[in-house]
Amino acid sequence: MFQISILKNFVKSYSSPPNEKIDTIHKLVTKPYIAEDANGAEYITLLSQLLNWSNISREVKNTTDMKKADGVVYDKHDNPIAIIELKSSDKNISNTDTIAQAFRYKNEKPTCKVVIISNFKQLDIYSDSSDKCFRFDMTDRQNYKTLYALLCQSSLDTGHISRLKAISKSQEQITKEVYRLYSSFRLQLINNLIANNPNQTKEQLLAHSVKLLDRYMFVLFAEDRGLIPANSIDKIIAQYETAKDGWDEARPLYYYYKKYFEFIDIGNPSLDIPRYNGNLFKPDVELDNLNIDDSIIKEDLSKLSAYDFSDDVDVEVLGHIFEQSLNDLEQIKESLIATHTVVDTRKKDGVYYTPKFITRYIIEHTIGTLCYERKLSLDLLQPMSDTATKKQKQTKLANLKLYKSYIENLKIVDPACGSGAFLNMAYRYLLEEHQYIQTLQAKAGAGLLDMHHIDKSIIENNLYGVDINTASVGIAKLSLWLQTAKRDRPLSDLMHNIICANSLTANWSELFPQIMADGGFTKETSAKPTASAGFDVVIGNPPYGAAFSTEDKNNLKEIYKTIHKGKFDSYYYFIKRGVDILKQDGLLGYIVPDTWTSLQQTEKLRKFILDNNILALEKYNFKVFEDANVDTISIIIEKANKLNEKINITIVNKDFEKQAKQVSQNRFLKNDSYIFNYQISENDVNILSKIKKDKLQIKDFCEWSQGLIPYDKYTGMSKDMIKNRVYHSDYKKDKTYKEELAGKDISKYDLQWNGNNWISYGDWLASPRKQKFFTSPRILVQRIRNPRLKIRIVATYTEEEYYNNPALSNFISLENSNIDLKFILAILNSKMINWIYTKSFTDVNIKPTDLEKLPIPDISKEKQKPFIDLVDTIIDTKEKTRKYNKHFDSLNAVQRIEIQEEIEKLEGLVLSSIDEIDSLVYGLYGLSSDEVKIVEGK
What we know:
Low-confidence stretches: 343-351, 519-529
Structural class: alpha/beta
Distance between the termini: 44 Å
Radius of gyration: 34 Å
Strand order of the largest sheet: 9-8-7-10-11-13-12-14-15
CATH topology of the largest domain: Adenine-n6-DNA-methyltransferase TaqI, Chain A, domain 2
CATH architecture of the largest domain: Alpha-Beta Complex
Largest sheet: 9 strands, mixed
Strand content: 5-15%
């Protein structure tokens, strides 16, 4: 939340609180276990004494849900300026529900600018938003001066936290600055490698540049974290400069870096460099033999070294940089192919990464859910009483041992791990669980755990990742090394944890034999593993929209034949594979595009998902990824052959306000094509059921066709034919040329050809369609309509010969149908059917396959007649209005007034006729007045 260097300068002007006050509160927070109920009042009192709070109240209710804030600090005018939320010492205060609870109170009080959440051991300060906080370790006495500077009464009164935040460079700003330098360094390095190393391919040199960058970033991080001597980069450059000036044998600057890399690999006690190993720095002959100009690895590295990688550029900032670097690598590869050098092809000056609230949500609802259930079964959720007997303590310790063994054996994988964002969040979550165990063990009278090697154990035994990109694998390893690197301890060997492979086609029994043992999970059959084999958790942000070769498509079609239908998208297959590699009752958590919930081609995928147990969906009604125009949703799936009675569904808006509901999984199973219409209410569901009951569908009375497709390269047409639109003209060249309609040429109950679109119709077209769909009486429906538009269905009727492209869909009567097309048109254009369609389908395409499922009552010609008469009235009236408008400009002033009055009468007749149709439709389908209000949004 603050730039650390600015915070340090700010704190200098404050004195530390008196030692006796620190002693008193420190004695409380260092107890093994501290209960909110028993110790909350004492803690707030001690805080108020420590921080000189002069006006504080305990347990103040908010008006939204009447829940209490544990404490509120006021200014001298009795305005709330800070709210305090307390939890017991064994609780995770990063939990989203805890944060939301505190912010509900803050959001009710405009003067309240600070939120304090504490579990005694830790204290988090939030300011304007819930996504960033500043955390204090309350057990560390060294932190109390900073705590006092930020939260004392005078600082709260004068708004120092908001001001500090405003003048601090945000994490985003620092990320952008460092990434600009990092990106510039990378571009210069790649181009220099290409210029100086003609004996290696561009692809090889690009891979070398990635590994070199990983090494340099580790050095920058390590020199500021005390893992290697401080200012190592500057010292290397200084040694090079000294030699260059004649004091030693002159060598390239890269020589000195290579020596330093060797020391990091094997250690050099005389230079105070421990042995880190970990494969990142092991000898690499090709890398060592590269030629690099001195200037390339001097100036930018020196600039990067000036940043504080201990505070301002922390592991999270580096994670963002790594993720963006991978996003840019594909563009760099394309640039290399096109120009033989690299140019910066990014369209925006920004850094894009998986937001923390996404990774946190998925980790909490997968790993967190499993941990919660295991703690519940072992009776580890409730704190131990101070009066617990020896036997109760022994039972608690035995259960803690079982829980520790459980989390040590959890197997978690990200099958498209990228830079490791999800794996790093999983690491932090598991580390907190070990700390939780330590707290409870201390409460039960056992000694403290040795936490020194827990972090290393987590990344070696719990976390796994796969990525098709070699650079991603290297960066994912680096990000985990940076999380866990400690002085005098070699880096973990992650060779068998983070693997380069194609997750979708690889044999997972070969990738991870120790986990998928006896799973029978092969590339050819995609057979499911046995119940005991597989991962406990699959997490990630799988890629989507990836291009596939013909060979890839054939492979995917075969491996994923149970879900494949129509178009290819990689994330479909990642969902299937993710569930398949889970052990029975394991959990999957992904963030993916929300298109799978309604697209026709994902019907089989929806059925596959519904064959398992869906625990939760979280839909984001805003752009989660700045560089991607796609609506996204998080999904949590349990691999289990049971239906969840209630799926927890959350809709999140751009202000992070959440609307929660529960929906029966069975509801989606009953829907046409298993559509996930999760945004509609139970009232909506009941009305939809009522409307559809005992009704036939449009497909029982009509057949349909998409519009003709004039051109397609796959039918043998040349690029020039397509580019020059050889079958189109703005006049009738010969008798084969027909009047062509576009989507914009129709509106509700109306059609106006523009007069100059002609197409040569015949077998020479790519897909000419049957001529009857352009000459028979028919309904035309616009194909493309934004899902956010109030009116989704726009349809009209014609008996004239027109030809149209796929922007319009064509419906004609089946032979012997007793239902008139104009009756169907009245239903299609009604408010009620528009409401049904909006609630049932969210695709931008108004597909005939969706329209044909709309409910139509099979009624007599006599009962259809009022609808048909009204449609005729509307169409005729619109035709008259169009003729009046056509000649309006040629009339004199008096005539214009008369005609304008007539036009207004005709328009009024159209509106009243449309209203009458709506009323007839409501009556025909038996809707009550209350149900009509729901349909009309009243």
